[in-house]
Amino acid sequence: MDCREIKNRISEYIDGMLGETEASEVKHHLAKCADCSEAYRSSVKII
Amino acid sequence: MAGYHHSMQEQDTKVDLERESARLAKLSLAGDRGAFDRLIMLHKSKVFNLCFRLLGDYDDADDCAQEVFIKVSRALKNYRFESRFSTWLYRVTVNTCKNKFRSRDYRLRSKKVRIDTVIPMEDNEKIVDIENGAGSPATELLRKEIDRLIQKAIDALPPKQKLVVVLRDIEGKSYEEIVGITGFKLGTVKSKLSRARQQLREALQGQI
């Protein structure tokens, strides 16, 4: 998944609505991508 | 909005509320007028809050909440007790708000956001309940300012995104409940919620 796809899945990732494989893919991407990781952190903050 | 975590105790309260609502609804249908009044009392602040979040105006929300309970009193005989009472009630509320959105009068008027006003209820309940709990005056001021910024950002969302994000992140409804309330497909709920949260994140970046 590229950054755009990851950002589209952050919402479901936060709510635990992704399947195991997808959730793992998002998790690994967030660990290495500063931009998506920041998008994740600020989403968590507002939710 | 921030920090909504539903504990086991909250879940139990939710179950109790559903059970009590169903009991009162049955009594109302059997002609007990007092039971209907108690049913309204149980849900009035939640209905008002939802109307207020969706409409962004106290007077409109007040009118809308009253309209909801008039509709409920008429339509209760059609409630089949197959879904949760609150899901059915939220569906009536959302549809009533949608009608308000569609009305020419509403669209022509400029919208005013008055989230910074904490509205006292008869029983001293607070209507605006994003993060209850007493704090210092400075903390309270900050909380109100954050609340105002969030409501302003929510108000700028397209109607469907606004509806989904309010139900999920303010009312704490599950995805399944949102499907039941709105009639949207699960995929639509997911995509609208994702877009709404992205927009809120961008709108609130650096502000909260």
How does this model look, in words?
The complex is a heterodimer of chains A (47) and B (208). Chain A has 47 residues and is mainly α. Helices cover 81% and strands 0% of the residues of chain A. Chain A has helices spanning 3-14, 20-32, 34-46. In chain A, helix 2 crosses helix 3 (34-46). With 208 residues, chain B is mainly alpha-helical. Chain B has helices at residues 8-29, 33-55, 58-75, 85-102, 104-108, 137-155, 159-170, 175-182, 186-204. The longest helix of chain B is centred in the N-terminal third of the chain and has 23 residues, at 33-55. The radius of gyration of chain B is 17 Å and the shape is globular. The A-B interface holds A 7-12, 15, 17, 39, 42-43, 45-47 and B 1-2, 4, 150, 168-169, 175, 190-191, 193-194, 197-198, 200-201, 204-205, 208.
The largest β sheet of chain A comes out as:
none
Uncertain residue ranges of chain B: 110-133
**Ends distance of chain A:** 24 Å
| Chains forming the largest contact | A-B, 14 and 18 residues
Defining traits:
heterodimer, A: 47 residues, mainly alpha, 3 helices, 81% helix, globular, B: 208 residues, 9 helices
Please provide a brief summary of the model.
The complex is a heterodimer of chains A (47) and B (208). Chain A contains 3 helices and no strands. Chain A has 47 residues and is mainly α.
How do the helices and strands line up, and which of them pair or pack?
The complex is a heterodimer of chains A (47) and B (208).
Chain A: H1 3-14, H2 20-32, H3 34-46
Chain B: H1 8-29, H2 33-55, H3 58-75, H4 85-102, H5 104-108, H6 137-155, H7 159-170, H8 175-182, H9 186-204
